[in-house]
User: Which sequence fits this backbone?
């Protein structure tokens, strides 16, 4: 490899979501003063890839991934990320009751994830080869985001799946893992045209599209192009994401169907997909009933729909409060420690701006956002990812 190529570096950020996967990429060049352009990675004119895998049979002889599963005719398996860390998750139990396949008996969760990631890795390698041809290729670094609340076992399974898919297999390429909340903080910091608060605190709440939520608090120290972001508390999370909401709504629908039909029946795949979409448009205003199933005409009141979601939303708000409280206490301790050795620093109890950033699929729910906004302190400003992107 030439010296010029060695100075350059390809960066790929990969977010394997519960429902879809996205990749961002850029090229770092120390010789260029301009900030690098960060772009979405595209495969077949698509930037969002369903996190699904399709197998022709239990023997794994033929496999299709993501965007190609729909037209394959193979048995399609969703929720790969849930299988990896929580095989007893309520939504997976609901799939089992509805006779929707969860994974073939001979396929482990890490094997399924690896089969899903292999085409992604191959597409990235093809893109690199097409772009550089026979010229020396810069090394690549692959950064995978993962939930902070995963156990060591789940993290090891993901790492094994990533490497089995080929990532990091070509020297000097490297693989790194970063907590999802930390990845979001870096995204906000780098977002072009968005000004992060100076000398303030930000709290990232990543409400997963179907898995968990990650929360982490950061203090921003300094101003200018390269402020320092200091984590005030270790990332944490809980099983209170979109899948838990779907499971609660599904349970209510099953109850309503049993009352109407006089017999308990498992939900169909179409019914489960429909209730997953209903929650994203729910505002919690007015008296218009919520339609849970168009075919059977099952509707519930807005109060009943709120009841399905409320325990999960309350859990999200509690976790945010815990982090706000902990970050306030830790910040004061850090400031006091600095003051003891550097008395010229600002006062320890100075008033800092506080921001809570919501990301993840369910964060776009109007009702969820409104509930969180009402539940956090008045001195804290709530923002969602769409506020930055709009």
Assistant:
């Amino acid at each position: 490899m030439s010296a010029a190529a060695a100075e350059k570096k390809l960066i790929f950020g990969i977010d394997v979501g519960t429902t879809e996967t996205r990749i961002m990429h850029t090229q770092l060049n120390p010789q260029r003063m301009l900030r690098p352009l960060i772009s979405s990675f595209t495969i077949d004119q698509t930037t969002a890839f369903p996190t699904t895998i399709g197998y022709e049979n239990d023997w794994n002889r033929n496999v299709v991934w993501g965007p190609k599963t729909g037209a394959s005719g193979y048995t399609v398996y969703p929720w790969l990320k849930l299988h990896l860390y929580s095989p007893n998750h309520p939504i997976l139990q609901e799939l089992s009751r509805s006779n929707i396949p969860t994974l073939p008996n001979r396929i482990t969760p890490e094997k399924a994830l690896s089969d899903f990631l292999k085409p992604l890795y191959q597409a990235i390698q093809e893109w690199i080869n097409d772009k550089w041809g026979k010229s020396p290729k810069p090394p690549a670094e692959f950064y995978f985001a993962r939930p902070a609340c995963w156990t060591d076992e789940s993290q090891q399974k993901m790492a094994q799946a990533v490497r089995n898919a080929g990532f990091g297999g070509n020297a000097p390429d490297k693989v790194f893992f970063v907590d999802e909340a930390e990845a979001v903080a870096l995204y906000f910091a780098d977002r072009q045209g968005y000004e992060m608060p100076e000398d303030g605190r930000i709290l990232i709440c990543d409400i997963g599209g179907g898995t968990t939520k990650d929360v982490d608090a950061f203090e921003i120290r300094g101003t200018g192009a390269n402020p320092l972001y200091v984590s005030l508390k270790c990332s944490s999370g809980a099983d209170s994401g979109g899948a838990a909401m779907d499971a609660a709504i599904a349970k209510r629908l099953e109850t309503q169907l049993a009352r109407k039909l006089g017999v308990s029946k498992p939900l169909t795949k179409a019914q489960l997909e429909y209730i997953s979409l209903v929650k994203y448009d729910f505002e919690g205003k007015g008296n218009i009933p919520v339609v849970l199933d168009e075919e059977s005409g099952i509707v519930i009141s807005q109060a009943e729909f709120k009841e399905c979601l409320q325990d999960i939303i309350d859990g999200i708000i509690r976790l945010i409060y815990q982090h706000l409280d902990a970050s306030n206490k830790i910040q004061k301790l850090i400031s006091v420690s600095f003051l003891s050795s550097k008395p010229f620093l600002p006062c320890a109890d100075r008033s800092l701006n506080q921001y809570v950033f919501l990301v993840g699929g369910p964060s776009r729910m109007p009702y969820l956002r409104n509930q969180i906004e009402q539940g956090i302190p008045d001195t804290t400003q709530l923002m969602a990812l769409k506020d930055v992107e709009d």
The first strand starts at residue 9 and ends at 16. DSSP finds eleven helices and 16 strands in the chain.
